[in-house]
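Protocol step 4 of 6: structure prediction from sequence.
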Amino acid sequence: IKKNSIVVPNNLIQTNIDGEFYVLVAEHVQEEWVATKKIIKPDVSYNGFTVISDGLKVGELLITQGFGDIVDGQKIRIL
């Protein structure tokens, strides 16, 4: 694994109907938090985690709870 790689738990990675992989991140937009779908390129996986080679930036806030029930663009609440 490359130094400074972005690694996420496998269970957060979803697949859309086109077969693309994505995760949901929280973005602060006009005083509200919104879920945003980020298309990603997964790389190697090991022990329940996957290295993301493209599509995520350091500092983005992954949605880790309720992500299976949230859709792109939905307003969310950060706890």
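Step 5 (inspection) to follow. The two ends are 32 Å apart (CA to CA).
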